[in-house]
Structures are given as C-alpha cells and as structure tokens.
Amino acid sequence: MSVKNTSFCLLAGLVFTACGKQVYEKTQDGVVVKVKQNSSADVSKVRLQALGNKLIRVSATPDKEFDDRQSLIIVPQKNKTPFTVEENDSAVVLATSMVRASVQKNSGKVTFTDLDGNRILAEDQNGGKTFSPIEVEGKKQYTVRQVFDSEPDEAFYGLGQHQADEFNYKGKNEELFQYNTKVSVPVIISNKNYGILWDSY
Length: 201
Description:
By secondary structure, the chain is mainly beta. The chain has no helices and 17 strands. Strand 16 and strand 17 (194-197) form a beta hairpin.
C-alpha cells in the first residue's frame, strides 16, 4: 500500500455498457453501475452498497460479474439502511441520510460528498482504479491499484502495528503482511474525518 503527497492508493471499481447505452441496476442494498470498457483490464462494473448512514461499500471488477465469495471481514447486515438512487447526465448517485457516493458513468470514478456537496473523498482523475491480469498457481487473477486525491495537509493513520517509527503514513509505503510482532490491519483513517477499510484478500 502506498500513500503519496497528492494521492492515496487503495481500493475500487466496476462498470459496463449494454447496447451502447450506459445503465445502472438498483439492488436491495445499493446500486450496480455498468460502464464501457476500453480493454479487458478496465473496470466493467462498480457496485455501491449502503451498509450504514455513513458507511458505503464500494466494489469493482473488470469481469462481467462480481466474485460471489463472501467477505472474510464484512459482517452481514441485518438492518437495511435507507437510501436513494439518482441518475444525471454524467453519474449515478447513491445517497443515505448523511453521505452521497457518485459513480461517473463514462469512467467508473467514485466520489464521496456530504449532503451539501462538500467533497469527502474522490478517486484520482488520471486512473483512480486499475486492474492488471496475473496468474497465481494456475488461476487467472488481478492485481488492483486504487488512487485517491489527497489534500496537502491531509494525514493518514492506522494500518496496524509495524516496526517503524511512522505514525502518519502520508507519503510512506507499508507492506501489509503478518510477521512475528508485525500486525497488519487494512484500515486507514484520515484527519479529514473519514476512514477506508481495504477488503481484498
């Protein structure tokens, strides 16, 4: 995981196009946005799921469908969070009572704002999420790179217990693996009052 001065690497995306028309599908807990792919490694679909009034899960895939394996760290939600879905010329927007998440229909870029439109977090304009095909033990997989815009005065904390005197990970690199007294936790918190959980095992 890499945190740079102007952008923050992490998770994302999904998109797809049918018959030349960009569409979305509303689900029980959110929305799936289909975006046009330029290559087989581009995002095919982006899924937004409302897990709480301040909690939206973002999933992405370059494939036609999402992987159906259950998350190892997300607890199934019993209580449904109320949400609305809107579409405009450029984006599909999922909104709860406290936060809005929009997906650009032509790129799959995801942006989070408060209800007044103030930006909380946004993917980088020049390649927010990329998938690179790899093969692991004979199985075709992807490596994922996620980049978010970051304010110059932003600081990032978390990632677990590591043997380096680093507290603010802005501009730093940290490999997330478990070893002896090194304990990795894929959660990072910003001093801008939001956090990100990386759910990709």
